[in-house]
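quick one
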Amino acid sequence: VFTTKRETGKTLSGIGLALCERLLAEDGEIHLCLACRNMQRAEAAQAALLLSHPGSDINLLRVDVGNIKSVIEAAQEIMQRYQRLDYLYLNAGIMPNPRINLKAFINGLFSSKVISMFATGEGLLTQEDWVTDDGLQQVFMTNVFGHFLLIRGLEPLLGQPGCPSQVIWTSSNNARKSAFSLTDYQHGHGQESYSSSKYATDLLSVALNKHYNSQGLFSSVICPGLVLTNLTYGILHPFIWTLLMPIMWLIRVFTNSFTLNTQNGTEALVWLFKQKPESLDPLVKYHSCTSGFGNNYVVPRKMDLDIETAEAFYKKLLELEQNTKKNDGVTENYR
Ligand SMILES: NC(=O)C1=CN([C@@H]2O[C@H](COP(=O)(O)OP(=O)(O)OC[C@H]3O[C@@H](n4cnc5c(N)ncnc54)[C@H](OP(=O)(O)O)[C@@H]3O)[C@@H](O)[C@H]2O)C=CC1
Ligand SMILES: CC(C)=CCC[C@@H](C)[C@H]1CC[C@H]2C3=C(CC[C@]12C)[C@@]1(C)CCC(=O)[C@@H](C)[C@@H]1CC3
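structure w/ LBM42IJL:
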C-alpha cells in the first residue's frame, strides 16, 4: 500500500486490509493506493473500504511482488500517477506449505523457553520453497527482493526536500539470525525460508536507513504478533484455531504477542504512521502487543543484528538488481 499524504503498497485482506481501515479512520484526507496481485480481491477490498469510509480516495494497482517484470512495471505506473509517496507499507508476505515440527513443539512445552516458543514460533515450522520464472527463490523474491526493487524504482518519489517518506516493513518475531546466511541469502538450501526472509527484511531496513536517511527516506520494521489470517490458516485449519482460542487467550496473559486479530496486529503500523520518522531508532523493531485484558500497545525491541552484515547483504541485493537489469529481468538464473 502507498499513500501520498499516506498510502501503502500491498495486501487486500488480513493485516493489509485492517491497516487501510485504520489509516482511513485516522485521516480521512489520505490518498490510498492498494497494490495487489489479484484485482478481483483488490476491488472487493476497495468496495469494503468505501462502504466504511464513503468518499475516500482509494486507488488500485496491479503488482505481483513475486515477479520482477510486474514490480518494475508497477513502479513505472506509480511514477506516472503520483508526485510523492509519504508512506510505503510493504506488507505482502508468504509462508508456503508450512509444517509443524511436533517433536520440537512438545519438547518446547516442557522447557524453560515455552513462552518464547509461543512468541516467536522458533524452530516449530518448516516451509517448502521453489524457484520462480526469474530464477529466484519464491519466498525471498516475494517477502524481500520484490519490495526492494519497488523501493528502488520509486526512489524519486520517496523523500523529497522538507518532506520525509516512511517505508514500513511487516517483519516478524519469527525472524531468526541462525536461519539466515549471507552465502545463501535466498535460503535455497534450508527449510526455514520464512524466518530467513524476515531476518533479511530487518537487515535491509537497517541498510536502507544508512544509505537513504540523508535524502529523507526512513525505513522501519514491525511485528504484528500472531494474527489469525490466511497465512496462519495455512498452518492450522481455521476450525482448529477456533478450538484453540481459549488456550490462546490464556497464553496472551504470559506473552503479549498473541494479538490474534488483524485490528490488534496493526497497532505498530498505525503507531508508525503518527511518528516523526527522524525520531525512530533504525535498530529497533516495533511490536504490536495485546495484554491479557485486550489492551493494545507498541513495544520497541532492539534487533539481533549487526550493521556490517546489513551492509554486506545490501551490497548483494544491489548486485542481484544489476544482474536482473542486465538480463532484462526474466528467465536467467541469478543465484
Ligand atoms: N499473520 C501473522 O501471524 C503474521 C503475519 N506477518 C506478516 O504480515 C504480512 C501480512 O500477512 P497476513 O495478513 O497475516 O497474511 P495474508 O495471507 O492474509 O496476507 C498476505 C497478503 O500478501 C499478498 N501477497 C502475497 N504474495 C503476493 C505477491 N506475490 N504479490 C502481491 N501480493 C502478494 C496476499 O495477496 P492475495 O490476497 O492475492 O493472496 C495477501 O493479501 C506478511 O508479510 C506476513 O509475513 C508477520 C508476523 C505474523
Ligand atoms: C496456540 C497453540 C496451543 C498451538 C499452536 C502451536 C503453533 C502452531 C503456533 C505457536 C506459536 C505460533 C506462531 C506462529 C505460527 C503458529 C505457531 C508456531 C508464527 C510463526 C506465524 C508467523 C509469524 O510471523 C510469527 C510472528 C508467528 C509466531 C508464533
